[in-house]
Every structure is written in structure tokens, then in C-alpha cells.
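so im writing up the methods section and need the cellulase record in one place, dumping it here so i stop losing it
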Amino acid sequence: AQLGKAQLVLLLELLVVLLPTSKAENSVSTTVAAVAPARTSFLAPLPRTTTAPRTTALPRRQPHTRWIEGTWTTGYWDCCKPSCAWPGKGKVDRPVLACHAGTEEVLTDSGVRSVCDGGRAASCRSHQPFLKHKNLAFGFAAAGVSGSHGLTGDENCGQCYELRFVDKKHDGGVWGGAHNRLVNKTMIVQVTNIGEDVTGAHSFDIQIPGAGQGIFSSGCAAQYPGFSTGDFDCDNRYGGCHSKDGCSRLPAALQPGCHWRYEWFHWLRSGGQTNNPWVKFRRVRCPRALTDISGSTPLDDHLFHTVEPDQYF
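--- predicted struct ---
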């Protein structure tokens, strides 16, 4: 019996020693079992975060990079505050700049009323066309709203387009098209205005001093005191001055752009050409030569072709 008790004590001592080991093994097993699902749940989302986005902006805008054909252009200069200078126009970093009608200083407040509506905000004289070199000009324009050629209005504010003048004539009348010395030349324009009357195959209305004030004929005389309304378009609201001599009626600050119309654009040369020339066009990335003037850059500009001036020589 005493031997049995000794064996029993020994057995109990062995159990005391073995039980912690068993618990430790069980805890390790439990820990491993608990950790494994956690790692699985952590790794599971990785394929979702590394998968390419379902859609990107580039495919939706790709049609704008191809050439759009079959449209024609006009010119205007009415001195009004550009439509794209108002807040909320287009997807841009900031509205297009306007200038004070009296001082020509750039306005930082986009809410100032237009000079064509009794206010003091006007088009800046720097918005007239200028040459990069003999085959390439820069400028600003009002965009059409028809939508049939990708121009729909306010959403085009701030966007830039490459216009390539083509050898096509209008049917009948004196609408000549492009002079042969203008054909295949290029102009890069930034949209600063929206032409509600620019519809159908009419795509762009280029800002050119002396090219006609159109329906808004009060702004220029208000911006430039001492000049009559007729001085700004040679008394021809739609079409403007017929010759370079008429540019002398404009304020000196606007005459370079008026001269450009006859020297590079070849307006009304050779019995009517150029007159509302036809173009093909495509959207491009805005050159700094334009955005430094307008103060406005599209937020998606990086998606589009960069203009390299040297390729137009």
C-alpha cells in the first residue's frame, strides 16, 4: 500500500510537469489558428488595390485628339468681359483673366460686371493674335455651342485647339475661304468666350481687333474714351474693316492685331479671300504662351498632345 502511494505521488508530480507543456502547445496552436485568418484577411484586398482602374479620363477624351473637319471660322472684337472669365465656367484651375476697362490692369475679382453691361471688366488687349513664326500664330477665340463637332459651350472654357486652315471655299457670295498663302498654316487658340450665335458648321470666332463688334457694340467705346463705336470695326458690325488702312481708326494698342489680320491672315486678298476660312481642328495641350496671358489652364490638359513650335517651320 505504501508503494502504491509512492507511485501515486510520482504520477501526480509528472502530471504537474506535463500539464503546462500541454497548455503551451495548445496556446501556440490557438495562436497560429488565430493569426492565419488575420493574414488571409489582410492579403485579400491587395488584388483590388493593385488592379488597374475600371475607367480613366483619357479614353473619354480621346475623340478630341483627332482632327475634326468641315467647320469654318470668323473673327470679332467687342471688348466685352470674356464669358470664361466668370466663375464656374469649364474645368480649369481658375477663370480666364479680364482687365479693368479704365486702367488695363488685370482684375483679380472674377465677379466684376462686364463693360458691355455697364461694368468695368473688359477683354485684355493682350488677347489679340500674335505670331510665333511665319507658319504659326497664337490667339484666343469664342467656341461654338452646337455640339456637332465637339464644342458644346461652357465646358470648353480654357481649352486649346490647333486650327489648320484648309483649301476650301464657301458656296456662293463673297465667302471666299482661305487665301492660298494661308492654307496649311496653323493657329493655336485658347477658348476664352462662348459664342451663342456660333452654331452649325461655324466652330470658332477668333478675337481680332477690327473684325467686327457684332451685337455688343457698347463695350469698346466705353473702354477707350475718345473713340466712336464705328472706329472699332470701320462701321461694319459683322465683318469689320475691309482693308489694313481701316486699322488706323482703332486705338494704337489694338492696331497690331488688326494688322495681323491682313499681313498673316490675308483677309480679303485676291477678290474675297481670306473670308471666314475653313479649318480642321483638334484639341491640344495649352502652350504657356497662351496660359501666361489668360491665367487659366484646363485640369485635364496633361492628357493632350503638346505643341512643338519647331514642327511648323
